[in-house]
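Field notebook, page 322. I keep forgetting to write these up properly, so this time I am using the form the group agreed on. The chain and the ligand, N,N-dimethyl-L-histidine, are recorded exactly as supplied. Prediction of the bound pose follows.
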Amino acid sequence: MLTQAFTTDTNSALITDVRLGLTKSGQKELPSKYLYDSVGSALFEVISVLPEYGLTRADERLLRRYSEDIVARLTPPTTVAELGSGSGKKTRWMLEALSKHQHVSYCPIEISRTALNMCERELGDIDSVSIVGFEREYLDGLLEVAARRQKREQLLVLFLGSTIGNFEHPADVKFLCQMRAILQSGDALLLGTDLMKPIHQLLDAYDDPLGVTAAFNLNLLARINRELDADFIIPQFEHVARFNQAVGSMEMHIRSLQKQTVAIPTADLSVTFLEGETIWTESSHKYSLGEISGIAASAGFRVDAQWIDEEWPFAENLLIAE
Ligand code: AVI
């Protein structure tokens, strides 16, 4: 049941980030969060069912198999906040397991209204679950959820799908620290992390033969055309996926196929691209188990339990705030 929604305006933030990212000296870049407008969110849903991209299915398998075990380790009553709920499909297993024991308040936090709507449609039928969506940046949303919690209620934060890997290190640790500062001791964080796997498998996953990931990436330029009235000619750019060995992350870039100048009137900007120059649009870190314990500890969490998918190396980590 959808009880309420809180909304915000992201357009001015997009203008600021486009200005900053495209006028930087050296590597141009755009924050990966802007990949998820309504077109991008729909394309990501398609990516998650591609045979080459096993991440989402691994996450789902673990939650389907182990949600009862995860719930058994919580200390109810528990309120659930989810950062970046996406379609909400994976969350069903957790909410169903938890709602066998208590009424559940579920607070998805998303900057995409489309994703929030999908999530509310997907999960709105579960008995004993009330949904309050927050159209917010993750930490702003979490602050609001934390402020509304009842005394003695445990907060369980779901941060699934290895979205943490999209924060470039050490921003991932900084983000976990900021999250920890909002939580109380004993609160829980269920953190999904994609694990390191053979590089050829990663390259296929991030540059699939159907070109869905390419469309997902290039949509960022199309979005800037739509929202900031820019004149990117999309076929003059191409999607690039590469593995950065030094940091253990997959990267997505958008490469300019020729020298060209693009006008972005709403941002009061004109940007020249050299032939072959790229815009860095996403990092996706692939963790080792040791690394996960390390980042958890430096952010003030202990690893309570881990569940690992063998088919597509991926870990679900239950972290408890110390
Ligand atoms: C959402 N995030 C964890 C995905 C990833 O794998 O890093 C986004 C994605 N980028 C390309 N394909 C999927």
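OBSERVATIONS:
- Residues 55-72 form the longest helix (18 residues).
- Residues 47, 55, 161-163, 165-166, 206, 213, 252, 282, 284 surround N,N-dimethyl-L-histidine (CB under 6 Å).
FOLLOW-UP: compare against the apo run.
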